[in-house]
C-alpha cells in the first residue's frame, strides 16, 4: 500500500506543476513585450557625415538632431532606426532617445532602433564601448556597458532594460556593404 500512496503523491505533484506552468504561460505573454524588430536590415534612405566625422545611415522616418554647438558639445537625439560609425574623439558622444541615454566612448559602430511611437527600443553594438542609462525616472536605474556583439533592449511599459549577446554577423555584413564605394 505505501507504493500506491507514493504514486498518488507523485501524481499530485506532477499535476500541480503542469497546472502552474499552464497558468504562467498566459501571464508571461501578457506582461512580456517582444523586442524591437531585428529582422533583415533595410537599405538606408540617407547617409550623412556629422561635423565630428561620425557617419550615420538613416532609415525611413528617422530623424537625428545634433544639439546647438555640435561638435564642441557632442550630443544628439535619435528618433527612428539609425546606424552610426562614431569617430574616435576624446570627448564622449551622448545620444539621447526617448528611453535611453548612450554615452559613446571613443570609436564605435552600432545600430539604434528607437522610434518614439514604439514602447521598446534597442541598441546593437558591432564594436566599441557604450554606457547605457535609462532616459526617464525609474526605481530601477541601473547603468550598463555594451561592448562588441552585445545589445540592450528596453521597454518603459514594464520598466525593463535587458542586456544580451547577439550574433552581429548580419549587421557587420550590412555595414560592409554600406562602406563600398
Automatic annotation (TrEMBL):
Lineage of source species: Bacteria, Pseudomonadati, Bacteroidota, Chitinophagia, Chitinophagales
Domain FecR protein: 48-130
Protein's recorded name: FecR family protein
Domain of life, per lineage: Bacteria
GO molecular function: sigma factor antagonist activity
Source species: Filimonas lacunae
Gene3D superfamilies: 2.60.120.1440
Amino acid at each position: 500500500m505505501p507504493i500506491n500512496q507514493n504514486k498518488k503523491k507523485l501524481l499530485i505533484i506532477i499535476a500541480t506543476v503542469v497546472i502552474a506552468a499552464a497558468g504562467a504561460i498566459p501571464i508571461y505573454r501578457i506582461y512580456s513585450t517582444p523586442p524591437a524588430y531585428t529582422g533583415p536590415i533595410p537599405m538606408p534612405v540617407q547617409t550623412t557625415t556629422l561635423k565630428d566625422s561620425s557617419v550615420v545611415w538613416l532609415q525611413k522616418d528617422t530623424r537625428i538632431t545634433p544639439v546647438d554647438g555640435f561638435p564642441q558639445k557632442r550630443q544628439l537625439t535619435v528618433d527612428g532606426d539609425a546606424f552610426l560609425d562614431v569617430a574616435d574623439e576624446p570627448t564622449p558622444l551622448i545620444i539621447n532617445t526617448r528611453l535611453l541615454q548612450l554615452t559613446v566612448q571613443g570609436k564605435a559602430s552600432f545600430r539604434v532602433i528607437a522610434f518614439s511611437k514604439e514602447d521598446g527600443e534597442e541598441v546593437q553594438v558591432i564594436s566599441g564601448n557604450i554606457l547605457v542609462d535609462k532616459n526617464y525616472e525609474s526605481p530601477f536605474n541601473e547603468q550598463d556597458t555594451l561592448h562588441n556583439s552585445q545589445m540592450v533592449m528596453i521597454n518603459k511599459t514594464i520598466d525593463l532594460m535587458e542586456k544580451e549577446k547577439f550574433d552581429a554577423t548580419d549587421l557587420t555584413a550590412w555595414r560592409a556593404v554600406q562602406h563600398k564605394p
